[in-house]
Amino acid sequence: MLGAMQDWDLRVTRLIDHAAREHAAREIVTHWADGSETRTNWAEVRRDALKMTQALRKLGVTKGDRIATLAMNHSRHLVTWYGAVGVGGVLHTINPRLFDDQLEYIANHAEDQVLLYDAAFQPLVDRMKVKWTTIKRYICFDNGEFEDWIGAEDGETEWASGDERDPCMLCYTSGTTGNPKGVLYQHRSTMLHAITGLQPAIFDMDATTVMLPVVPMFHAASWGLPWSGAAAGIKFVFSAVNDPAVLCDLMNREKVTHSAGVPTVWLATFQHMDATGTTLPTLRHAIIGGSAAPRFMLERLMQSGVNVAHAWGMTETSPIGTTGAKTFDWADKDFAGQVDIKQMQGRVPFGVELRCVDLDDPAKVLLRDGQTSGALQVRGPWVIKRYFKADADATDAEQWFDTGDVAILHPDGTLQLTDRTKDVIKSGGEWISSVELENAAMSHPAVAEAAAIGIYHPKWDERPILVVVKKAGAEVSGDEIKAHLAQSVAKWWLPDAVEFVDQIPHGGTGKVSKKDLREQFREYTLTD
Ligand code: ADP
User: What is the pLDDT of residue 253?
Assistant: First the structure.
């Protein structure tokens, strides 16, 4: 016997239908690269996406075809998200900050048919065109080209229909070794993820929300915000430029209540605020993820009354995995205790399951004892089964995805990331958490950024060194930093050396690239 309820395929076009019907006039504001600003709304975004669907059909795009974008955050990009899925296609957001060989591999591997791009990336497109073998049509978002292209249509059409398990979006992870790998999201997984994102502990969104997402639409689906935002009918404020002065000005003019970005974005914002005396009085919810949020960042936001969602996730988890949700005894904790909770990576929402297995023996599942660190695995309906074009294999049935992260799980389910399996430092057979060293170093007032890496050591196999960028105008010695670290980490964790540099290398998603840093220090030697 089957249940007797209405069938409603969970297709993401329903999100934009809902937003256009229930929140038609809620605005979508864009600050463009040339400094101009435009305003549209959910009803217009839907109409433009329908027009785009018609225009794509004329190009011969059919179900399952990949439609790529190379673009910053703006309203035309949002239209394209819904237009691409509306024609039954797969939206492929390419990260323009990747290297040429990665860009070549990704577009060819995805077999992209159409590419929509910002004028700012024209040189990149000109350079790569000869290498991209499947793209049949290039459309620039700027100079009137996109508007003219969809402007020739009337929007009188229907979305493509299909199954909720059809693919809708493709994102590649940059990957630290080998070629980038594609994650192919489904309508169903994306919809479940979008609804989950609305929770107070995650994005905390409703119709009063004014969201400025700094996390790019090309990075891990902008954490799903373009989908969740439609479900909640929020006002979006997009900026095609990531200058903190522009962002702060926009936040104040548009009365932004919510913003989302990686820690480096928040850091740049704070620096601008300190230099100019700017405040962000309307901000009430800050989402930080992608790498660990340093303690002082959480303290500063929480002290000014902002609720912080410190989230862990990855492209392979759509990306929501956990957030720093309040624990039942939240109200009994003092401020420092509340920051302690937020500093860890938090707990899962319904729909995500975590476990840690032994780093040397993956068959051994570890206890959630708040002490033992292991390889973190994850499963759930918006977690990857296998990479795009990878063959099905025996591990599919297990449905536990290996995250590549090293973590401790606490008895109440709280996740505490201690490292990535590739970055962990093993000294005399014992693990040292590079993340904890970095967090401790970043709490020193003279430190702008810090990264710990393992260096070969004749006696201990590996010992940590700490690479530090000083804050502009600040002075500090290696010994002073070590003394500061000694207050919060075990003595044998203290780095053998502190090296000062002008900058630490960052990868395509703005995170510290340990691989490049290790390369930079390849010849570095430590003696007994
Ligand atoms: P990439 O591997 O290209 O950086 P992702 O953006 O998918 O791609 O990165 C996912 C990884 O980022 C996670 O596996 C984890 O190592 C790290 N990460 C994400 N959120 C956090 C967080 N809150 N704290 C620490 N690390 C995080």
Answer: 98
Tell me, in angstroms, the distance from the centre of ligand 1 to residue 522's CA: 24
The closest-lying atom of ligand 1 relative to the alpha carbon of residue 417 is 25
Q: How many CB atoms are closer than 10 A to CB 222? A: 24
Amino acid in position 444: H
CATH 3.30.300.30: does it fit domain 425-520?
Answer: yes
185 CB burial (10 A radius; 0-12, 13-18, 19+): buried
CA of 193 to the centre of ligand 1 (A): 17
Residues 6 or more apart whose Cβ sits within 8 Å of residue 174:
95, 98, 102, 180, 507, 508, 509
CB atoms within 10 A of CB 232: 25
pLDDT digits (tens, 9 = 90+) for 236-282: 999 999 999 999 999 999 999 999 999 989 989 999 999 999 999 99
Report the nearest-CA residue for atom 9 of ligand 1.
Answer: 314
> Do 353-420 and 425-520 agree at the fold level?
no
User: Does the pLDDT value for residue 176 go beyond 70?
Assistant: no
SS3 content of the chain, % helix, strand, coil (to 5): 30, 25, 40
Say what the pTM is: 0.90
Active-site amino acid positions:
173, 316, 426, 431
Calculate the dihedral angle through the C-alpha atoms of 21, 198, 377, 310, rounding to the nearest 10 degrees. Answer: 140
Among protein residues, the one whose CA lies closest to atom 10 of ligand 1: 314
CA of 257 to the centre of ligand 1 (A): 25
Mutation to probe ligand 1, out of 377, 417, 418, 515 (largest number of atoms < 8 A from CB): 417
Residues forming beta bridges with residue 239, ordered by sequence position: 31
CATH classification (class only), 26-343 = alpha beta
Q: Please calculate the CA angle 487-462-424 and round it to the nearest 5 degrees.
A: 70
pLDDT in tens, 98-123: 889 999 999 999 999 999 999 999 99
Residues flanking ligand 1, CB < 6 Å? 173-174, 220, 289-292, 310-315, 319, 345, 403-405, 417, 420, 509, 511
**What per-residue string of b and e applies to 289-328 under the rule 16 or more CB within 10 Å gives b?**
bbbbbbbbbbbebbeeebbbbbbbbbbbbbbbbbbbbbbe
Name the E strands within 42-180. 66-70, 90-93, 112-117, 137-140, 167-173
Give the CATH fold of the 353-420 domain. Luciferase; domain 3 (2.30.38)
Q: Where are the domains of the chain?
A: 26-343, 353-420, 425-520
